Amino acid sequence: MKRLQLIGIILFLAIMPLMSFGETATPTITSTPTSTPTPTSTSTLTHTPTITQTPTNTATVTQTPTFTPGAAGSADREVIGRSSGVDKITFEWIADGSGNAAATTPQAYTGEILRAVFVNITDTASDPYVVTITDEDGADVLDGVASSIPSEAATKTSYSGISTTKVQSIVSTSALSLTVSGATAAHWAKTILYIKR
């Protein structure tokens, strides 16, 4: 009998942990860090751009004619507004060793000469030179007004209007021929005509 009681007690103790008595066990886990990480370095980023621009070369522009002395480099025609009907004719020339230059327009013109302008590109420090522009009849359409053009650089001489001391007013279906004389050798200039069609 005692042996049976002993066996019963042992079984009870063995199965007691497996039995539920209406209680729910909630595990509680508490973690307490034992150390606090401390940064060992501090990084500060600072960026200041510095740009220095230094020119590596200095350009010097020198005008050089591309045409032969004694001949005009061009006898260009430019239309100044189609509605106004004005042609701008530019003779660019450089004098030969004798101080002369010549050229003829590639086309004929008809109209009233409004203005003549003489522009020196180089300064030859010479005496004034003579410019004539003749039509196919050999008449000077400048009527002699360009018989003493100053030769200093940047000098611009202009004539306009109609009178005996101004530009002859009409040219009729004619090419125009430029003749320069009395200039210093290698003198470089432009002669410009404005003609209203």
Notable features of this structure?
three-stranded antiparallel beta sheet; six-stranded antiparallel beta sheet; mainly beta; 197 residues; single chain
Distance between the termini: 151 Å
**CATH architecture group name of the domain at 81-196:** Sandwich
Which shape, going by the Cα principal axes? rod-shaped
CATH topology group of the domain at 81-196: Jelly Rolls
Rounded mean pLDDT is 72
What class do helices, strands and sheet pairing give?
Answer: mainly beta
- The radius of gyration is 52 Å
Q: Which CATH first-tier class of the domain at 81-196 would you pick?
A: Mainly Beta
Helix amount: under 10%
State the order of secondary-structure elements, H for helix, E for strand: HEEEEEEEEE
Region (Disordered): 27-76
Biased composition (Low complexity): 27-69
